[in-house]
Amino acid sequence: MKLSDFSSVLQLGVGLHLGTALLQSIAEFASSPLSKRIERLAKLAALRRTRLEKRSDLAEMSLELENEVLDLHSTLELRKVQFFNEYRIAAVVNTIAAVGLFCLLVWAAVQAEDPASIYLAIFLIGASFAPAVLSLGTLWWRWNVNTVDVRKTTAEIERKLLG
Predict the structure, then answer these.
(1) Which whole number is the average pLDDT over 117-129?
(2) Cα end-to-end distance, the chain, whole Å
(3) What is the pLDDT of residues 67-113, one digit of tens each?
(4) Residue 142: is its pLDDT beyond 70?
(5) How far apart, in whole angstroms, are the C-alpha atoms of residue 128 and residue 151?
(6) pLDDT of amino acid 134
(7) Which neighbouring-strand residues pair with 115?
(8) Are 129 and 91 in contact (CB under 8 A)?
(9) Does position 148 have pLDDT exceeding 80, yes or no?
(10) Residue 6 forms beta bridges with which residues?
(11) In whole angstroms, how far apart are CA 23 and each of 15, 64, 65, 152?
(12) How far apart are CA 117 and CA 128, in angstroms?
């Protein structure tokens, strides 16, 4: 095994890490399903309130549900901002990893004919993929942990609105 055998892996690693560092729409990907669900509930609550305006007791209850949905939407927007701040940390880590991998790629190109030990091979492959996979996995986990209450409340309101 030679260092030149790992140039493609290192190139892929540089691209992967730069891609994850520049993927600014990740917050939209993560929040879109929940956001659409809350927007649908807001429309249903407003429609229900309008339909029940003549009966003051039911209209009041519908107005409360509509306010709950609006509060829920605000909470989700705050969580999206928090998630984006966490994403910025991951973007910095992935940018640093991409620069480090680029340096390794240049080194491997200069020393292309040098033999690569099994330990170096494992390191190069791990360094090419581990930081991006770990940062994206951590972001996914943090999003799920931070929005569990929003998902739970959304389900409760949905149950109240839809029966």
Answers:
(1) 91
(2) 65
(3) 888 888 899 889 988 988 898 898 899 899 999 999 988 998 888 88
(4) yes
(5) 35
(6) 92
(7) 2
(8) no
(9) yes
(10) none
(11) 12, 38, 36, 28
(12) 17
Chain-centroid distance of CA 71 in Å reads: 22
Mean predicted confidence (pLDDT) in 132-140: 90
Q: What letter would DSSP give residue 114?
A: S
Question: At 47, is the secondary structure helix, strand, or coil?
Answer: helix
Helix axes 7-22, 118-146, angle to 10 degrees: 20
Residues 98, 13, 2, 126, CA torsion sign = positive
Q: What is the predicted pLDDT for the residue at 149?
A: 92
38: Cα within 13 Å, side-chain hemisphere: 22
54 residue type, one letter: K
pTM, rounded to two decimals = 0.75
Q: Which of 146, 153, 145 is nearest to 72 (CA)?
A: 153
Q: Which pair of structure tokens corresponds to residue 25?
A: 């729409």
The backbone torsions φ and ψ at residue 2, rounded to the nearest 5 degrees and listed phi first, read -115, 160
Flag whether pLDDT at 24 surpasses 70.
no
DSSP string, 117-134: -HHHHHHHHHHHHHHHHH
